[in-house]
Amino acid sequence: MPPFAFSVSTAAILRDADRKIRARVGGSHHALYDYWRVTMSKICPVDSFYVGFYQENRTIVFPYNYDGHEYVYPDFHTYGDDSLATYILTQKRPYRFADDQGRLVSRGVAYGDESRTSADSVAVPILVDGTVVGLASIQAYRPGTYREEHVRAF
Length: 154
Fold this sequence. Notes:
The protein is an alpha+beta fold. The protein is built from 6 helices and 7 strands; from the N terminus they run H-H-E-E-E-E-H-E-H-H-E-E-H. Strands 1, 2, 3, 4, 5, 6 and 7 form a 7-stranded antiparallel beta sheet that branches.
């Protein structure tokens, strides 16, 4: 597969999502995050999904959290120097569970079903004009779930 090519099925899903998301511009942010989650669920398993935005004083606000088949209420947390939030903010690139065997993910605050531990995840920066303003993450309870195509699609 060439460096930035997608499989035929993933490309079709992403084209459809792009068309639908562009039609919703100016709509509810919650609906946009929901559609992003649903789109990724068509491409790969998604057991948990969240979107967070950086605020002052090392705080990140999570307006959208989803675990299993349940929406989890918005929340906010502070983050430390050796956290996933700091990694995304400073590195400005995706994080994969395989990068450090989940060390950064396990340092985070659990949400949803706290009795289950993510065995694979991807987190990506949300950029506005090249500046990291937030992050989003997909997580799976099964190890080895996410491939490079999933990271690029996310």
